[in-house]
């Protein structure tokens, strides 16, 4: 018989830190865009011309954007599948959330039972909605249009998986990196001929 005593160190998985980003996409909304313009004019003191120092101007714009538009949490959003959601599912989940808040505020057995009942009901509704959505999807895939959609979806997923930020470098015959668009096109033409 062999006896062994071991001490194992379990390393916690470190959550990758992502930087918080200004929500610039909110500028697509007209009211946010107008508010941003007004605040920026206010900060710049109503000047028509911007200051000569680009660093100062850029920092003023960034700071105003952070204040008006807000900043993201820095965490990556979980990719949850919600394409099959409908109004009923949305409403029942909202009711369940409210029941959970109520139970958290006042921990009585009655509130707990209400929350548990809503939780069971939501699970049933979610599974029914999901099943219905998948059935519709499968029947649609049997058609010609569904087949086209499937190929379109596959191409989209393939594109999404590729890194757009990747820098592609083309070198000439001597190994020098080509920077101008014309020289890159010339080299591609040369290569394929």
Feature tags:
193 residues; mainly alpha; coiled coil
Question: How would you characterize the overall build of this protein?
Answer:
Keywords: Coiled coil. It is a single chain. The longest helix is centred in the middle third of the chain and has 33 residues. The mean pLDDT is about 85. Helix 3 packs antiparallel against helix 4 and helix 4 packs across helix 5. The protein is built from six helices and no strands. It is an all-alpha fold and about 190 residues long.
Rounded to an integer in angstroms, the radius of gyration calculated over CA atoms is 28 Å
What is the helix fraction of residues, given as a range? 55-70%
Task: Choose one word for the global shape.
Answer: extended
Strand count, sense and barrel status of the largest sheet are: none
How many beta-strand runs? 0
Mean pLDDT: 83
Strand content: under 5%
The secondary-structure class comes to: mainly alpha
As residue ranges, the low-confidence spans are none
| Elements, N to C (H/E) | HHHHHH
From the N-terminal CA to the C-terminal CA, the straight-line distance is 74 Å
Number of helices: 6
Topology:
Elements: H1 30-43, H2 54-69, H3 87-105, H4 109-141, H5 144-161, H6 181-192
Keywords: Coiled coil
Structure, briefly:
The protein has helices at residues 30-43, 54-69, 87-105, 109-141, 144-161, 181-192. It is mostly helical and 193 residues long.
């Amino acid at each position: 018989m062999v006896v062994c005593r071991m001490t194992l160190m379990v390393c916690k998985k470190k959550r990758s830190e992502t930087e918080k980003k200004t929500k610039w996409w909110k500028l697509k909304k007209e009211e946010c865009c107008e508010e941003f313009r007004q605040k920026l004019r206010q900060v710049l003191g109503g000047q028509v011309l911007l200051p000569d120092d680009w660093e100062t101007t850029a920092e003023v714009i960034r700071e105003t954007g952070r204040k008006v538009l807000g900043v993201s949490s820095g965490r990556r959003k979980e990719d949850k599948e919600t394409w099959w959601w409908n109004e009923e599912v949305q409403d029942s989940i909202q009711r369940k959330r409210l029941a959970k808040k109520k139970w958290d505020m006042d921990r009585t057995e009655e509130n707990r039972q209400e929350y548990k009942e809503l939780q069971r009901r939501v699970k049933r509704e979610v599974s029914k909605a999901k099943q219905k959505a998948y059935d519709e999807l499968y029947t649609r895939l049997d058609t010609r249009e569904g087949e086209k959609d499937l190929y379109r979806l596959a191409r989209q997923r393939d594109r999404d998986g590729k890194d757009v930020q990747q820098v592609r470098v083309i070198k000439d015959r001597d190994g020098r990196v080509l920077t101008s668009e014309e020289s890159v096109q010339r080299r591609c033409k040369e290569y394929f001929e």
